[in-house]
Amino acid sequence: MALTASLRRTLIALFALMTFILMVFYWNQDVLKPASYLSNFDRFVRTKLVPEREKIFISEKTWTYKCVNDRCIREHYLTQHHHEKRIPFLTCSMTCGAPNIWPEPTGKVTLGSKSLTFSTGCVKARIETPFEKVENLFRDAFVVFMDDMRLIESLDRDDKVSHEGESHTGGAEGSNDVATSVPSKRPEESRCKPDHPCDIDHFEIVVNIHKFPDIYLRSDTDESYNITLTLDNRRISAKIIARSFFGARNALATLQQMIWYDDEDRLLRIVGRAYVEDAPKFGYRGLMLDTSRHYFSVDAIKRTLSGMALSKLNRFHWHMTDSQSFPFVSRHYPQLAAHGAYSNHEVYTTEDVRDVVEFARVRGIQVLPEIDAPAHAGNGWDWGPKHGLGELSLCINQQPWSFYCGEPPCGQLNPKNNNTYMILQKLYAELLELTGPTDFFHLGGDEVNLECWSQFFNDTDLKGLWCEFMLQAFQRLRQANGGIAPKMSVVWSSGLTSSPCLSKNTFAVQVWGGSTWQENFELIENGFNLIISHVDAWYLDCGFGSWRSTGEGACSPYRTWQNIYKHRPWYRMRLTPMQTKQILGGEVCLWTEQVDESTLDSRVWPRAAALAERLWTDPDDEHDFDAVHKDVFSRFSVFRNRLVQLGIKAEAIFPKYCAQNQDECV
Predict the structure, then answer these.
(1) SS3 of residue 636 by DSSP
(2) Catalytic residue list
(3) Closest Cα partner for 365 from 297, 302, 300?
(4) Whole-number pLDDT of residue 663
(5) What is the DSSP letter of 560?
(6) Sheet holding 267-271: strands in order across?
(7) Is beta strand 507-511 parallel, antiparallel or unpaired with respect to 488-492?
(8) Which of 124, 215, 276, 602 is in the most buried spot, having the most CB atoms within 10 Å?
(9) Backbone angles phi, psi at 278, to 5 degrees
(10) Which pLDDT tens digit goes with each residue over 624-648?
(11) What does the angle CA 427 – CA 414 – CA 406 come to, to the nearest 5 degrees?
């Protein structure tokens, strides 16, 4: 009993002592830490860390920025400037120094130094054009623009609502007012409040498309535009003048980059005054995705197209099939996918292809599907004998593979089976129907292995047989297109394109070999039009080692965005002005031996955007091949962050410190 009483007294004494120590610590904590700093830190930062970490947008309320000598300087806001209004980085960088637009416009550009807040609820648009189909297509493009604006406007909200696919006429029938997309099933609340007003009450976008009625991209489409932004009291007007829908859509991509989210005001901002004249240097600005070595969902492809649209890349080369798989479900020959797809879920139906094509067209992009032939055609082509069509393809999965193809599995179409050409013709017809009018069509044609054919046709001129196959495929394409061949039938560069087999008037060549290979000069001298995809500069899959148990990787090293940006082959080849006209443009290529949907975004972006500026602007940097200007790093970093805000998981280009401290790292 006595022990219990003694223990009780001891515990009471210890409790009293602990209480005293805690009270002393509490009342003297100002000596240990700056109270003003920590109270602000807790209020602005610490409470945000956990919930914000999973978001694509993190408010950086620790820092404020000021413009000094056309450069944004980072300063600590919580300890130095918390009595002043905080200036976020984008609000500073968009009005400080050179214009922050990617690709850099090729004509005159002036941007004001003042920015204004607004809400998407005040945005209206009006289109002036004599072409009804152009008007309808632009209405759809404007809905996409507004959806992106609403996504950016809601970056720090927890109740994000997707508006994609919903639309609202916004005016009486027959009106030129353009759709702005319906907010959602519940009314969207404007962020402009009486106690938190916006600088702008009315934001009108007026679009004039006056010359070309095209709703499908062509090789000679005029993609130029100009934008004039003016302010009158609390009304801002954006006047867009373009000769075609595609120019007007490019103008929207530029206008979108004049708008950003201000996380201090929690409102969108736009520059108050601007003038932009712009037109691309090259008409063909492409990205190729291989969906045979790995399957990519329609959503993943659409995400890639969204990045292309903001970058002003305009050709999506869809390398749909190869020897590994045949995921396209043909209406005429479903056996190809039944025997060639990885599973019944990893296929593209005609509805899928049509969906991708329309998604792309609204964003100013042409889809160019490719059924590779005669090589790279194995799995999916092995059902012919059972259906009375004979051997459609030869050497399928043959070993040792290195004797009969460039990589496993092997497979090469049978050039002496007329049923093979019949199937190709039907496939071409289906794809042409799905993609709409085109003056480009890709026939494949690369890496034919003559050893494969020699097992079956050893008494034949095998190179001549290859030539006969490509010419027969071209004739079948002509028949599939109603007796009219597309303006340009594209083939990969190969040993065949260096021979006099193919006509320079009907075939364009996609050059994938090294930039110093002799074929580049020979093709130019022979009069061919070229699409450049040099493996040593514009292959996005290089630099990840070998995916086989033996041998080195197919190509190395890794192609950095700087490598892609600096590659300017038409200058290094010292082409004459007439020869330069034979360069239609270029294309980055992503072969997917080591890429699937989980790594697609980071493998493509933002590196593909580096190609976009090379082909749109073609900056004159011939005196500095090894370095990229500081301004390019700054603009590229901002553009990469814009991609991330749209849900594209683009890889970082340098530490975040470098993004926050302009020019310090480069």
Answers:
(1) helix
(2) 322, 376, 447
(3) 302
(4) 87
(5) -
(6) 115-118, 267-271, 259-262
(7) parallel
(8) 276
(9) -155, 145
(10) 545 578 889 999 999 999 999 999 9
(11) 95
